């Protein structure tokens, strides 16, 4: 097939190297990529490992997702040490396989077909399997229980472009000679540009516009295109947000959600003054407008002397001034006759 630039998207055998050598994707220095050298001596590692970069003493971080250990899967397929998730037998290089598009687990095609057909319901009268259209029948992946549409009939390569791919010495077993081209998901418009490969496609090399901050707001993250920006990032530093008491700071590590109440204790006095220096949660209580401190209700009778000067408050310990005495008249009259004046008692 032809790429956008008109070039050939198939992978050519490199005659200058060993038969197992593969074409490596071209990398730019600014892409912050490095190649795993420990696995490249035998099979020619083709998948770059994405590193995490920290700038300005941790204030800006470039967050990169795991590449799904594609190189490890390639090595297992080459060595025939990868086990089928259904029968647990090794997946041979020439075996017909099926790979889940959700969990990317590789299984024998015959095992998957047997599994899928076994889920078809039976007839109620004679117990025989119902006749269904296998091309549209929905069944669940044995590994992740993801709903799959259609029972597979033929083996396909990992990118899905070629049926029954031929085994070639310069290709990964069960892979074709095309570029993967899968959609990375999460709104990324750049398709995977690696050769057909097992496992999850690595994250996009392009950065999203703008930046994202962690839960405490201290660390700024740069995300790759296709990474979910709605997930809360945690930087691992102390939160240090001001607690509701406005006296102390949160001592927890960067976290999502509310910091909660202050764990410290402070001495408080009740409204009626009967209890002094009681240890209460810092920041609790009700603000008293008379002296500007936070107080609490002890639950006892107030007992303060009312404005009448004769009776005491009978309410439960409360904030604010006591109510007027219930025995005092609501108003009084000055003078007699037509010249009398009626006034309310404040």
Describe the overall structure.
The protein has about 350 residues and is mainly beta. Helix content is about 5%, strand content about 15%. It is elongated.
Keywords summarizing the entry:
15% strand, 3 helices, mainly beta, 4-stranded mixed beta sheet, 346 residues
Distance between the termini: 95 Å
Q: Widest sheet: strand order?
A: 3-4-10-9
Number of helices: 3
Q: Report the mean per-residue pLDDT as an integer.
A: 77
The structure class reads mainly beta
Which regions have little confidence, pLDDT < 50, spanning 5+ residues? 1-60, 62-66
Main β-sheet description: 4 strands, mixed
Output the helix-strand order: EHEEEHEEHEEEEEEEEEE
Gross morphology is elongated
Radius of gyration: 37 Å
User: What is the β-strand count?
Assistant: 16
> What is the strand content?
5-15%
Helix content: under 10%
Provide a quick synopsis of the model:
This protein has 346 residues and is mainly β. Helices cover 7% and strands 15% of the residues.
Topology:
Layout: E1 33-34, H1 40-43, E2 49-50, E3 53-55, E4 60-63, H2 70-79, E5 97-99, E6 106-108, H3 109-118, E7 138-140, E8 147-149, E9 212-213, E10 220-223, E11 265-268, E12 278-281, E13 286-288, E14 293-295, E15 331-334, E16 341-344
């Amino acid at each position: 097939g032809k790429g956008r630039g008109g070039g050939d998207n198939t992978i050519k055998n490199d005659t200058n190297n060993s038969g197992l050598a593969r074409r490596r994707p071209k990398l730019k220095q600014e892409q912050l990529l490095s190649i795993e050298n420990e696995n490249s001596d035998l099979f020619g590692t083709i998948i770059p490992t994405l590193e995490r970069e920290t700038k300005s003493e941790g204030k800006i971080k470039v967050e990169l997702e795991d590449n799904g250990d594609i190189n490890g899967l390639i090595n297992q397929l080459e060595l025939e040490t990868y086990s089928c998730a259904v029968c647990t037998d090794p997946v041979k290089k020439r075996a017909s396989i099926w790979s889940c598009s959700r969990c990317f687990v590789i299984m024998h095609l015959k095992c998957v077909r047997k599994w899928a057909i076994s889920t078809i319901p039976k007839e109620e009268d004679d117990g025989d399997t119902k006749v269904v259209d296998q091309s549209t029948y929905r069944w669940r992946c044995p590994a992740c229980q993801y709903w799959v549409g259609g029972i597979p009939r033929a083996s396909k390569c990992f990118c899905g472009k070629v049926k029954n791919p031929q085994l070639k010495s310069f290709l990964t077993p069960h892979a074709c000679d095309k570029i993967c081209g899968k959609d990375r998901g999460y709104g990324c418009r750049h398709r995977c540009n690696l050769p057909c490969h097992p496992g999850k496609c690595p994250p996009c090399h392009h950065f999203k516009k703008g930046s994202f901050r962690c839960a405490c707001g201290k660390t700024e993250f740069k995300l790759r295109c296709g990474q979910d920006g709605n997930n809360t990032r945690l930087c691992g530093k102390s939160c240090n947000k001001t607690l509701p008491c406005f006296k102390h700071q949160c001592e927890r590590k960067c976290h999502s959600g509310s910091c909660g109440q202050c764990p410290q204790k402070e001495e408080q006095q009740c409204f009626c003054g009967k209890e002094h220096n009681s240890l209460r949660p810092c920041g609790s209580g009700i603000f008293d407008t008379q002296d500007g401190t936070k107080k609490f209700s002890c639950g006892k009778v107030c007992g303060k002397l009312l404005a009448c000067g004769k009776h005491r408050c009978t309410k439960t310990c409360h904030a604010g001034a006591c109510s007027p005495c219930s025995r005092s008249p609501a108003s009084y009259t000055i003078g007699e006759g037509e010249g009398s004046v009626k006034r309310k008692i404040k």
